[in-house]
Structure formats: structure tokens, C-alpha cells
Fold each of these.
Amino acid sequence: MSVLEVKNIQKSFGKTEVLKNISFSLEKGEVLSIIGSSGSGKTTLLRCLNFLEFAEGGTISVNGEKIYDGSEKRSMKENEIRMKRLHFGLVFQDFNLFPQYNVLKNVMLAPTLLKLGTEEEIEAGARALIARVGLSDKTESYPCELSGGQKQRVAIARALALNPDILCFDEPTSALDPELTGEVLKVIKSLKNGDSTMIVVTHEMGFAKEVSDKVIFMADGIIEEEGTPEDVFGNPKSAKMRAFLSKSFENI
Amino acid sequence: MDGIQAWFVQQFTELKDKFILCFIDGDRWQWIFDGLLNTLKITLFAGLIGVLIGIIVASVRSSYDKNSESLALRGGFGYHLLRFINGICQLYLTVIRGTPVVVQLMIMYFIILKSSTNGVFVAVITFGINSGAYVAEIFRSGIMAVDAGQFEAGRSLGFNYVQTMRYIIIPQAFKTVLPTLCNEFIALLKETSVAGYVGISDLTKAGDLIRGRTFEAFMPLIAVAIIYLVLVVILTRLVGVLERRLRRSER
């Protein structure tokens, strides 16, 4: 059974159709990379999965249970949405750490508010997660004292603290210097070995090629091409994908 | 040389006599002191009421601004209720900010709270309601200034709206609005000087009473001005300390 099944997702902003009938599925432990040029709808798709936007049509199922139906969105209660959102974790492009709290509190805040255990359990869990992203010496630091790469690693730990079924990354390295992207990508790679199911929206073609089990190339709100990284990168069928690839690699 | 010295001595004696006339004779310093107490009372309690009203109105208005889209999408009772309350808040802001505080004070004193004999109470209520309108917009500007990504981070972590506001947005917003809020309290403190219009003996009124009794304008009015100045300086300093403490998590 697929851990995630997305069927016919549609979304428009005003008259602009951003997502036109997007469908895909994801198995447990798989890593899916979504690539495509800016404005192709990648980020919007991720935001629909996290209920930061509401798709107008289509369904989203997690572990076989239908958690969202675009035709019934009117009847969804705020609390219901809140609970369903917890199937997904989200790591933002610009981190969005809470500046008034230190690293430990940033990671602990969500499990504490959602009462996922005793104070000691939550703190131990948070410290373990911070160690996992390699920042044990920074637990007391405030976000403003961290580099971009460190901030993003804290954000990953914060998203993991709720133990989501699927962890989503929205261009996790786009706001980082080239020399800082490596440390973040390494953490994401290490999560793959830890059996996390992940969706990564990225412009890092090398990373997508190396880490993903599955790649989706989006253009103009549709899935233009999908398959294993070998197929999509090695043997692209669509003209748009070929044009995109040649542009992506020509600057390097 | 002697002439200059004599002139100084004469000036000093004159000032001393005026001082005694204005503040010592008939224990008139007591008027200033009582007036000062009333001014402080009115400012403090009106400030508290203002903050309370400000929080409530700012919450309603920013909830409406932030959530109206998603609520409108789903419609229902909650949306119409929020829209109704938001309308009331907007009416309140328009009326209070659109009329002079002296007029509001007189309406309150001579019409709405006509039966009340406690002038200070009327002033507290009036200035509180007046200040609330300004504080509300100050708070709202602070809330709206917090990056939208912070709301989304909260929501993506499963917080509800109240938790997001309480733990993420308001601490950041408060830091942003503190200087402006201090400004509002300074304005409030000085605005209370119009309380004398309806016969409340605040600090300004006390100075004016002494002027009327002694036919001496300089002493009492300058004294009143200095007291206001000192109060404002103290208030500014206190807020400065608080601000520095809050900024500790930055840099």
C-alpha cells in the first residue's frame, strides 16, 4: 500500500491554473524529488499537501485513508485540518525558525504544545534530533547566531520532532550559499538511510539524481515526466524536460 | 560689583517669596501633589484599559485579516460572526479616532456618565476607551509586520490559531511595537491634562488653580511643565530598559 496517494489535484489562483490534475503515489521510505522551472507549480503542490493552500479538486490519501477531498473542503473543520496536517512535516526555503527561542526550544515547542509526552521525554527526543543533524553544541544558541545551513538543519530537526509520515522540503537549499548547501543535503541523505519518506522540491539536479527513488518533472502545472532518476535524467522523453536539463547543466 | 550682587539677592528674594506664595502658603503644594496623584491614576488605569481593549480589538481585526480568506472559502456561522465583530471594531476605531478626546470627555461626563460624581473615574473610562483605539492599531501593525512564514511554520507544526499567536507571533510583535507603544503612553499622560475641562483636579488644573488664586503664572505653570517632563523622561527610560532586555535574543 502506498504511504501517499495524490489524485487529480487542481488548484488555481484567480484565473491562473497552477496545478492541473496532478496525480502520483509514493511508497514508504521512498524519496521523491520534484524538479521544474520556477512557476511550474512545485511549491504550490507541496503547500496543498501541507494544507497551507487548499486544492479545489482531487484527493489526498495517506496510508490508504483519504484525508482530503477537494470537493468536500467546505465541510472540513479547523481542528480536523490541524490533525491531518500532522501527517506531513514541512521544511521551508527560508527556514522560518522562531527567532525568540533557542534551538532546543524551537524543536521542543511543537511536541510540547501538542502534548506528545512528558517534558523530559520531549527534551530527550529533541536533543537526540539535534544531535542527528549535528548541532549538539548549538542547543542553547538563538537562530540569529547560526549560519544559514545550521538554521536549515534546526528546521529539519523541528519538522522531525512531530514524527511525520512524510517529510516535505520546499527548496531547502535555495536560500543558502553554495558552500552551505552540502551540509544540508548530507542531513537529508542521512534521513533517507533512516527510512524516512520524503518529498524534496529542489533545483539541485545532482542531489535529485543521486538521492531520489523517483523524480517528477513539472511544467506549467502538469507532470511532464516522471520515473526513476536514471530514466528522467538519462533518457528524457519530453522536449520540455530536455530543454530544462540542458539549461540546468549548461551553467556548471 | 555691589550693584550686581544686590540685584541677584533681590531677584532671589523675589523668587523665594513667589515660591512661598505659590506652594507653601495655604499648603498649596498639596494641590499640586493631589493633582499629580490624579494624573498618575488616570494615566495608569486608562493605559491598562487601553491595552486590554487594544489586545481584544487587534486580535479580532488581525484574525479577520489573516483568516477571512480561508473562512470565506468554507463560509458558515464563524465567518459571519467574525465579520460582524470586525465591523463593530472598525466602527469603534472610526468614532474614537475621528473625534477630539476633549469632546469625548465632555460627552462622557455630562451625558453618558452624568450620574457619576467621581470625575477621576469618568476620566479613566474616557481616556481608556480613547487610548484603546490607538493601541489596537499599534498592536495590529505589529502583528501584520511579523513575517507570513512564521504563521505558516506554526500551522505546519499543527498549532491552532491561538497557539500560533500566543507562542510565536505576539512575542515578536510586542518587540516591534514597544517604541510606538511607549509613544502612545507619553501622549496619553499629556492628554490627561485636558481633564480640567470637566472640573477634575489633575496636575494641570492644580497649577491653574494656584495661578488663579495667587495671580502668579510663572511659578505654578513652570512647575507643572517640569513635573510632566520628568514623568515622561522616567517612562522613556523604563521602556528603554525593557527594550534592551527583549532584544537580547538578537545579535
Note: Residues 108 and 126 of chain A are 6 Å apart (CA to CA).
Amino acid sequence: MNTILSTFLKKKLPVLLLAAPFVFLTACSTTSDDSAGDGNNASVEDRTGGGSGSGDGSYEGQTGGYNDSGMNDGTAVNGQAYSGDPLSDPNSPLSVRTIYFEYDSITINSEGQLALNAHAEYLSLNPSKSMIIEGHTDERGTRDYNLSLGERRGKAVADFLTASGVQAQQIEVRSFGEENPVALDHSESAWQLNRRVEILY
Amino acid sequence: MKLNARSSLFFLLFSSFLLFVNQAAALLEVDITGGFQSATPIAVVPFSWSQSGKAPVDIAGVVSSDLTRSGVFSPLSVNQLPERPQIDGTINFPRWKNTDAENLVIGQIIAVGQGRYDVRFKMVDIFTGKNSLEYQYNVEGKNLRRVAHQISDKIFQELTHSRGAFDTLIAYVVVNNDINAKKRVYTLAVADSDGFNEQIILKSRKPIMSPSWSPNGKRLAYVSFEKDRSVVYMQELKSGKRKTIAQFKGINSAPVWSPDGKRLAMTLSKDGNSEIYVMYIASGVLQRITNHYGIDTEPSWSPDGQSLIFTSDRAGKPQIYQIMINQRGRSGSPKRLTYEGNYNAGASFSPDGKSLVFISRDRGSFRVATMELATRNLQILTRSKLDESPSFSPNGKMILYATELRGRGILEAIAVDGSNSPQRLRVLSGDVREPAWSPYRSR
């Protein structure tokens, strides 16, 4: 913890000054819930068909749902009126959970870097917290290549975070390639929204 | 090596998850577009039926639509038929010579009780008057459509001297593309080559990708995200028994069976980034085939099992490479096969091993392309924008792929020489994608 802090004091003092008050309070909160649901949530059916009964409805929810039990309230400082979990402060850069990318690119733009700096600090100072980084692509090109490209985007974000002091074991990269679009059109504007990395606590 | 021992050590039985399939037929709809200028006219007379009312299956209708879909034949319409001869009756040849058809197919269906049927057909050369084919079958009612496809195969073989691929199956993924990701339902299904007799293999709220047939046609390998990340599974179609093949850290994707059925090539990123591996299915032994910081994925076996082709962006943009494979893994270094254009990916071999089919970026669009290995001549076959997942039919005559039409995901099939307009297979609602044509079925 101290070495992480000293790195940060050298590198990112100005941001830290803002973040420090709630960071110290939340650093001693309980462990996160990072378990991915391991239950079987798909049904397999007999090729012969004709059976009866229902295998439907056995799906489980999304992972990455973040659990705020055990969190302490932050303290308002410097006119920041928000008191509560910094992760749910809509005005915090931590509220940015999606990083967008150019076509076939893994370059994190300045907006993305700003948000990731905040996430890096949060994770560095809350070593019990963990994050899932989901890489996504637009639909152009082949599905399996896009699955790899999505992972590469996720790793670019993970590398950025670890270079900022986050421990590798706090991060898990997953790729969905082009399989989970948020916009369903087949247009440039939809593709822009789909080329993304999502951050899930 | 962190394979989940619990699920890899034994097959899981999912029979308790049986879903009643209430509308088994025609979730996939075949839609034949455009004309076939070079198609050969043929006469297929409606089969006579031993009882009153309609026959349980219009075998002549199934045969006609098979032959039409091939792009090679154009069956006469029913009102172009000058007469409807019985299989053992006389044929008025002069009247048939006035049609465009050179061959005449006649048949009958007889209900023989206990749900079984005798089917007989023959094909007659209109100019010589000789029978070129004559076969009979005794089957259960549920197999009548399959008999029709087998008849189509016999006719195709007789007249083109190439094996027909009508009595085959296709696997595909259907998704109701709800804007709310949590409401999406993904279905992996298998149907006859004409879209009928759909059987559901897997239903999930999470994406399903990359179905791949075992060489004996009895199993599928595929990728499912039901655990919120990509995992490779192998499932026996008849029993529904399923086994987890790969759930390492990172990507587990793109499984393809070796021609001998003993190995699966796949993409894993467990060692850092996407690399090609070969797994011996019985032992789980893994061989790493590629080693590069670029993306290596989409492996596909050559028909002789001696090499793999794959997509790699090691030179900057995705291109197709080939690497030799032996029992111990790779031998030699990858050799680049494509140089034309800046995006060539998702390749697979033709059954004779002489050509590849893949997706190539052509003036901003992603289109189906073929390349003869001897000449390296790249030919773009389609005019669509978002083609994916192309593969050859088992007889090498057609290419099946996924594309997008007016906002919907559909499947199309096109002749390898690009001679016909694509025929379309669509679902009544939702998108269909990831088609995989089965190998020939064992009889």
C-alpha cells in the first residue's frame, strides 16, 4: 500500500488530492464480490426432439453487478457535495464505465484515459476491489477475429491500469467480440457505439 | 493448465432440459432469388399417392426445390407438364419432347401401414426412352423428406457426375436481436439442408458462436458465453450429451475438427494473446501451434489433415497463413497465402483442398472471396456488405455464408463459380448467422 501511494504521490498528486478523503475511508471496506456466476444458464436439448417439459427460464443474471454492502460513506470536501460510494457518484470520473475506440484500433483516447486514471486510483487504493474489463467490437469483419480484437482492446485498458499501479489480479479481461452490440443498426453511428470496452465492478 | 476438471472429466447429461419444439418445421425459410440462365430444364411429375387426400410429403415438390436451389437445374412448373404418367404406366414421349426437359422423374408413395411407406421413383431419358435411375425405399413417415433429398442426390449425381449434397444438415445460430441485451435469446439449431426439420441444440441468454461438425456428422463443437465468457463445448447431437473442451483464462474459441476426428484446432489466449492450439480430444493434450504477439485465430484444417490455415495480423492487417502440422504439433513456420487487399480472414478449404473461401474487404465491404491455391487468383463472389462465416458445401459446389439484408441477418448460398444469384435462408423473426454445412451423412 505504501509503495503504491508513494508512486501515486509522485505521479498523480493533483488528482489524488481530490480523491484522497474518500479513498482512505473506502480502502478498509470489505472484500468485493468478484465471483462470476458459475451455474449452468443454458439448456441443451436432445436432437431427437419430441420431449416435453421446459428448460427455459433457467438463465442467470449478468455478472459484474457490483455490491456496495460494507462501503463507508465518503466525506464531502472542497465543495464536492456528494456523500456516498464514489463508484455511484454521478459526477465522479468513476461514473464513466465505457471507453470508445476507433475502427480496428486499440488506442485509448484522452477522454478514456481521464476516466481510467480515476479507476486506476480507485483500484490502487482499494486493493480488495476487482474489475471485469469487457472488450467489444463492431460487426465488421469476421466474428472470431473480432473476438480477439475485443480482447486486445480489453488488454489495452488493463495495461493502462496496471501501468498506473493497479495489481494484475484485480483485473479480469473478457472479450465478447461483436457478439454483444449495444446498437443494432448496421451504420457508422451504431458501430461507433459498439467499439468499446465496458468496465464492470 | 487450468481446465475445469469437474466438467471435463465426465459428460454432462442435459436430457432433463428437453424443450418441446412446437414448430419444428420451417423456422428457416428458403427464398430463391434471381434466375439461373444456365440451369438445365428437368421434369419432376408429382408422385402418385395410394390414398385419397394429400400425400404426407410432396416428394416431387421437395426434389424440385432441391434441384432449383442447386442452381444447376430448373424444374418445369406443374402447368408445363403435358401429362402425369404413373410409374408403371405408358409415357407419351412425343408430348415430352415438346417440352424443354431432357429427363423425366416419376414416382409413387404407398402407405403400407404402421406409419411406414414404400417410395419408388425412376428417371427416364426423354430422348432414348430408357430408365437412367430406378430406386425404392421403405421408410417411416418422419423420414419421407429425407428420402426426397436422397432422390435429389441420385438425380444430381446421375446428371452432373458430382455427388449431391441435399441429404445433409446445416447448423446455425438464431438470435432475436432485442436492443436490451438481457432479453436476447440465442439458439443453436440444426436443420435439413432446405431448412426443414429444425432441431434445437442449445438455447441461451448469452451468445453462441462457431458451430463446427465432427467428420462423422454426429457431434458439434461450438462456443457458448453462458458462463459470461467464451468456453468451447462438444455435444453429441443424438443424445444431447455435452462436454467442456476448453475454458482456460481468456479466449476459448473457433474450434474445428481435424479430418481424422481425433483433434480439435482452436484459438486460446491463455498464454497471453490469441494463438492457435491443437487438442487431442481423448487425452486433452494440447499442442501450441502459433507463437506471435499478433492475433492468430480462425484455424481450419486442410482436407488431408497435414496443415492448418489461419488468420493472423502479424503483418499489420489480417491475412491468411498456412502452417504444416504433424502428430507432434507444428512443423516449420507459417507461410502467408494472401497478399491482395488489406483484410482477408475466416478462411476454410474446399473439399478437394485446391481452393480457399474467406472474407475479403472489397472497397469497404466485407465479401465472400475464393482463391485457387495453384494460381493465387482471388475472386470476389458477392456484392453484399457484411458477409461472414463462409464455408463450402460437402460436394464443393456451393458456398454457404451469413450476411445482412435490410437490417436482418440471413444466410445465403451461392455457386462457387458465382453463376447464380444467391439463394437466401432467413428466419421468420430475428437474425440467423454462423452457418456450418454438415459432412455427408452416413446412411
Note: The radius of gyration of chain B is 23 Å.
